Fold:
Amino acid sequence: MAEELIGMEDMEAIFEVTDSLGIHRESVRVELTKEDPGSIQRVADGMVEITLPVNESAEVFCRKLRIDLEAMGFEAPDSMLNYDDDEDDDDPRPPSPQRLR
Structure:
């Protein structure tokens, strides 16, 4: 039996989850071949290693991926730009470029 390879749709599904949790794409390693039962692990160098299963859809696996990554301590950033967008800040001035860094 030939090995089953992941496709672009699989990668898009994985990145949808990891992007939403603020995980940089260069911190994610995805095995190019699918292997049961699939795996999600954080390794010593801080990378997240993912292997998709053969006998499960990417959609189902990605629900588990989100749950496992949240259990590892990853969480969605406050905003997509990763800055504090709360309106209750004490400083009434608009943010300057230096203060956004």
User: Anything to note?
Assistant: The mean pLDDT is 85. Residues 8-71 form one domain. The radius of gyration is 18 Å.
